[in-house]
């Protein structure tokens, strides 16, 4: 499934942040979203994931295809690692959580409540959820926060394997994931122009 974004404009808190943004994400491809703090990367990912409507423009190919990993890990702290993954596997109808446990080195932690994991372990559990969704388009917001070097490599390997199986990934990150094949989308190039102050004043006069 190809994700097609056409002439998209988005807002946060009632203010336009990005406008005129178009791109295509094809199966087997990764797109790295870059741009300075506050430019609108999270807002873009939330919009593509269907959590908020765009101001204008088209998002095609996203419906029921996207697995979204937000800033927050979204874990249930009282449930164990296995129970958290099993919950998501049932939501998405996946048969097995074993590949997710193995890909993110969680097997030895499987009986520990998520609330008792370290920050990096929580992040690994949150990311491993992407595998049990079975969804082809991974949309991820700063996925490597709290991860050590080895875990970043683990994550990049999981993304590479996903691309190899015909999946795709849109990832907002400030670090180099070592995904040589990935393209880069600079959100800064699509910064929305705020209305000129003169125009604003004229509205009152
Ligand atoms: N809940 C909110 N209400 C109003 N404005 C918000 C809200 N969340 C974020 N913003 C503003 O929207 C703009 C875009 O924020 P966004 O989180 O999308 O940026 P970002 O590129 O992801 O930043 P970062 O790299 O710091 O995570 C920023 O100016 C931010 O201050």
From TrEMBL:
Presence of the UniProt keyword ATP-binding in the record: yes
GO molecular function, one term: ATP hydrolysis activity
UniProt-listed InterPro entries: AAA+_ATPase, ABC_transporter-like_ATP-bd, ABC_transporter-like_CS, ABC_transptr_haem_export_CcmA, P-loop_NTPase
Keyword Transmembrane applies: no
Keywords: ATP-binding, Cytochrome c-type biogenesis, Membrane, Nucleotide-binding, Translocase, Transport
UniProt xrefs under Pfam families: ABC_tran (PF00005)
Swiss-Prot/TrEMBL GO biological process terms: cytochrome complex assembly
Domain ABC transporter: 3-205
NCBIfam families the UniProt entry points to: ccmA (TIGR01189)
Protein name (record): Cytochrome C biogenesis protein CcmA
Organism: Phaeobacter gallaeciensis
Taxonomy of the source species: Bacteria, Pseudomonadati, Pseudomonadota, Alphaproteobacteria, Rhodobacterales
């Amino acid at each position: 499934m190809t994700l097609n974004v056409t002439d998209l404009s988005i807002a946060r808190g009632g203010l336009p942040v990005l406008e005129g943004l178009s791109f295509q994400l094809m199966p087997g491809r990764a797109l790295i979203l870059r741009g300075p703090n506050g430019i609108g990367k999270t807002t873009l990912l939330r919009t593509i994931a269907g959590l908020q409507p765009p101001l204008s423009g088209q998002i095609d190919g996203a419906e029921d295809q996207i697995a979204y990993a937000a800033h927050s890990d979204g874990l249930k702290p009282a449930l164990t690692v296995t129970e958290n993954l099993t919950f998501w596997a049932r939501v998405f109808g996946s048969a097995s959580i074993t590949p997710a446990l193995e890909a993110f080195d969680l097997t030895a932690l499987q009986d520990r409540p998520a609330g008792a994991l370290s920050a990096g372990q929580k992040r690994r559990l949150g990311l491993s959820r992407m595998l049990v969704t079975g969804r082809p388009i991974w949309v991820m917001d700063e996925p490597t926060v709290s991860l050590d070097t080895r875990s970043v490599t683990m994550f990049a390997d999981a993304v590479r394997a996903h691309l190899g199986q015909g999946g795709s990934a849109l990832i907002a990150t400030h670090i180099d994931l070592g995904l040589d094949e990935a393209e880069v989308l600079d959100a800064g190039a699509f910064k929305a122009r705020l209305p000129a102050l003169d125009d604003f004043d004229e509205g009152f006069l």
